Amino acid sequence: METRLILGSMKVGALAEVLVILLLGWPPAIGHVLVLGLLALAIILTFRITFGHVLLVADYVRQLFAENGPSAEESKRRQASPFLGLRPKYSHYMGGGKEASAQAKPAPKKRQVQQDDDIPLNEQETVPLEDDLGGEYEDEEAEDPLNDINVHKQEVGLVPRGRRVPKQLDPEEHAQAVQGASQHELPFDEQVALKFPRKAPKKVSEMESLAPNPRLPGQPKARAASQPAQVIVSSWKLPDTALLNNPDEVKLQLLGDDTTSLAKTIQDTLRSFRVDAEVRPEDISIGPTVIRFGIRPTGKPEMKMDEKTHKMMPVRDSTGNIVYETRTRVSRIMALQNDLALVLEAKAIRMEAPVPGRPYVGVEIPNKNSRLVTLREVLESKEYQGMKAKSKLAIALGRDVAGKPRVGDLARMPHLLIAGATGAGKSVAINTIIASILTQATPDDVRLLMVDPKMVELSMYNGIPHLLSPVVTEVDKVVPLLKRGITEMEQRYRLFSQLGVRNLDGYRKMRLEKLAKGDTSLNNLPAIVIIIDELADLMMAAPEEVEGMICRLAQLARATGIHLVIATQRPSVDVITGLIKANIPTRISFMVSSAVDSRTIIDMGGAERLLGRGDMLYLPADAGRPERIQGAFLADEEAEALVHYWRQQIIERAIAIGEIANPAEAENKPQVEPGWEISEQPAEEFELDDELLDKAEEVVREYGRASISLLQRRLRIGYSRAARLIDLLEEHGIIGSAEGGGRSREVLDGSSDDGFDDGELHTLADEAVDIMADQQRNEFLRQQAEAIKRQKPAQNPPHEDIS
Ligand SMILES: Nc1ncnc2c1ncn2[C@@H]1O[C@H](COP(=O)(O)OP(=O)(O)OP(=O)(O)O)[C@@H](O)[C@H]1O
């Protein structure tokens, strides 16, 4: 074609003639440009020439030229720096001694500031150094003879140079140095004896021999024989777990067709939404109530040509995993929660991203072959046995999504908050906690206090020796009970500080040591577990008091071995307040009705997707994410069997010491630990509460009248307590007596704003009067504040604030 274009009509072949036809009408130059341009394009595309290649070639050509002779710029760059070999002018150590530093003094105090390369150095601006380094700083240090560096310099100067002869050992000096020290005979004893005959030790083996290694067979026995027994044998006998129901023989269905097809459904659904992910068989966990599938986000794999097969294969890393060019985002998988629930036809699914410690997103769906987790199987598991050996407060929780038994230690929790909707399994959980304690701890180890405002859940435990006082069912008795707990805590604190021990463990250790020496001065202090089955009822009766006491107990009781287990079915912020939450770090959430409730309990959503009937999220104090567990189940008859077992022991003991003649007497006798009697009349307890009486007096004086509802609102206390305070105020002559027909009582020393009296009845009219009085008072205060504001600018200096 080129020939045809250049030479015009010359025959160059049929193909060239055909190809060149289109270009013949144009000037030959256009034809050349087009043809050469097409050729260049073909070369670029065929050889995949990029701009990088062009730059590479350009660089190479530039270097070729450069080798012939460096450019002016290059030679300038290669010149030696004018500062090469110069020390910084303000260095401490420039020059030799003081004279040198004195000579050099003017120089170090100036610093050259290079502003422009073109300006000669001597013309550049100089800045005095004192400004930056703080005046006389250098000279002071250089001249100070006690300065560490100067002392060291002098000492270094004294060290002789060259090889030195090793110093001879002075036997006298050596003998003095090792005087009083005793050690095992050394293997080179004979040589020592030869060299220092006077100092050869006659008998040096005074060191105590090492304790035998308990891991070697036969050694523990020898040790046990040589030491006093460190365990106090309790006179109580623990029950056998055989008392409890036998675990169901139902076997878990392992990786049958069901899970395989479900895994395939999940993977197909993800693919249909263009989400690259895989569900591997090893990532499927089958638990008692849920099955968890692990979805691993994959992506577009990086491909390379296989040398043997000449096919494109995915690149694998050193561990054999596929390397992905782009990965699927976890959030894209999470967004498909409802779509997955739809295709799986599941009642409720819960997704967890990522499952802690695993490289996948967990999808939990209900297990159609769900089964009961019995308390006995968890109590007999090796996990529980291990925990039991460490702590007397080991509790059985249930089984996790992989079917592994899960246990906890109440001593380390150290308090537990349980919440969940009604019927979700709170009471069963509390019963399993109590049963765990009853099966492994004697009353010498652990004592219990129980509050059951619902009156039906815990009353059956009355009469067991672990109870410090009978189960409290009246709300009014809870405050005295908690107060008694706080008193106990304070007593223990005082005792511990007198003995110089830090906590209950330290106390127990000290007691064992004393007992080994025959000193029985220290009493046994059992751990105390306070169980409250419905917090909401208590918080409604006296929110401030109950909250304050729970927080006080929660903050300080850990060291003294007092633990709280609190349950509520109303996980709202007025029941589980911020303060209570902050002080009770370990939480269990059963199914709740909304994500808001879930967040109130475990600080995140998820509990609203639980299945109920013991399905729970367990959040230990030290974990960031909750763990899903199917709670252990304890049937009523099992709990009764345990209670019967312990009651029987009490009866046997009482008969043995002649306290009672027949078992029937014991059944009727409530067991109360001396000092733990909770007063039937809560008023007696309140009477001692001078602090609140003072506050009540302040309130009635401030308002100029007294009523129960006023005290209830102002002091945030319950009705009965407010009523009792009104009685006390009357007894102390602060308010007038009830005189029928009125609503508020007269305050005797203050002014009464109305003529009404008598406030025993808590009526709506009573409330209305209080509200109106409140409004009047607020209006008065507002007017006062405005009056002060108006006066302020006019006066100088301003008046003191009246409020
Ligand atoms: N761990 C469990 N395993 C199997 N079923 C359970 C479990 N826990 C509870 N259930 C079932 O749920 C029912 C209700 O449990 P529970 O009485 O403990 O609920 P609750 O939360 O205490 O309710 P409420 O607040 O009304 O007292 C039980 O009767 C039992 O059938």
UniProtKB/TrEMBL annotation:
Membrane spanning stretches: 6-26, 33-56
Binding of ATP, residues: 420-427
Domain (FtsK) ranges: 403-599
Spans annotated as Disordered: 95-132, 206-225, 739-760, 781-803
Keyword DNA-binding: yes
Domain of life where this protein originates: Bacteria
An example Gene Ontology molecular-function term: ATP binding
A Pfam family matched in the record: FtsK_gamma
Keywords: ATP-binding, DNA-binding, Membrane, Nucleotide-binding, Transmembrane, Transmembrane helix
Keyword Manganese (UniProt): no
Entry's family note: Belongs to the FtsK/SpoIIIE/SftA family.
Protein known as: DNA translocase FtsK
Organism: Ktedonosporobacter rubrisoli
Record lineage: Bacteria, Bacillati, Chloroflexota, Ktedonobacteria, Ktedonobacterales
